[in-house]
Amino acid sequence: MRILAVETSTLAGGAAIVDGERLLGEYTLNIRTTHSERLMAAVDRLLQDCGWELGDLEGVAVAIGPGSFTGLRIGVSTVKGLALALGIPVVAVPTLDALAARLPFAAHPVCPVLDARKGEVYACLYHWAEGTMVRDWEYLALAPEALCERILGPVILVGDALDALGDLFVARLGGRARLAPAGRRLPSAATVGALGHALLLAGQRVDPAALTPLYLRPSEAELRRRRALLVH
Question: What pLDDT is stored for residue 223 in this prediction?
């Protein structure tokens, strides 16, 4: 199945094209250019380099968060428009799932940790059992210190929060903490595509009109709106 995968959960993001279990191409940037400026250009370049047209796509997968509110809205809106225009199925891939899947068959539990700003991180915990990735926690938004209190054994940490908080995790967790290599820490559209392919085969499709990002807390705009309603 020919699938376009989109990842815009963090500053690092891009797109990938997979054909079944085969990755044909991936475009990733980790710079401060907004996803609205680069996402469709990346999709166009990938299609051109693969010798495909939009009409050749048979499905689309998107990382739905948690993550950057603006980035997720751009990714979800782009995928929703493509799915509706092309009449192809869409699947939603939680960003923390896709991050954990970057370290398949890890000997220790894997904990993806994303910068949630305002002194918090987004996190979850996973382990591998008989070749299958298993999620152990609900998706969380919490303080880094509170996350450390939940981690009771050896763990592999992955995610963009390690750039700013890696030293804190090492200090708090000591020998229990293993930091993933820098090249494996960031979200990958290719991994979103691989998980999306499995979801499509399992029939776990989402109505494009109902596709929404996974937010674990209100955005700043929503909080301002609520405060304004309380004032009035």
Answer: 44
**Model-level pTM?**
0.92
Q: How far apart are the first and last CA of the chain?
A: 53
Closest CA to 5 of 193, 186, 208: 193
Which residues make beta-bridge pairs with 105?
none
Q: Which residue in this structure is represented by tokens 């910068």?
A: 115
The DSSP annotation for 141-160 comes to: EE-HHHHHHH--S-EEEEST
| DSSP H helices in 92-152 | 95-100, 144-150
pLDDT digit string (tens) for 203-215? 999 999 999 999 9
Identify which of 55, 56, 73 has the alpha carbon closest to the alpha carbon of residue 64: 73
CA 84 to chain centre: 22
For each of the domains in the chain, give its residue range(s) and CATH number, in order of start. Answer: 2-95+188-231 (3.30.420.40), 103-184 (3.30.420.40)
At residue 163, what is the residue type? D
State whether residue 219 is helix, strand or coil: coil
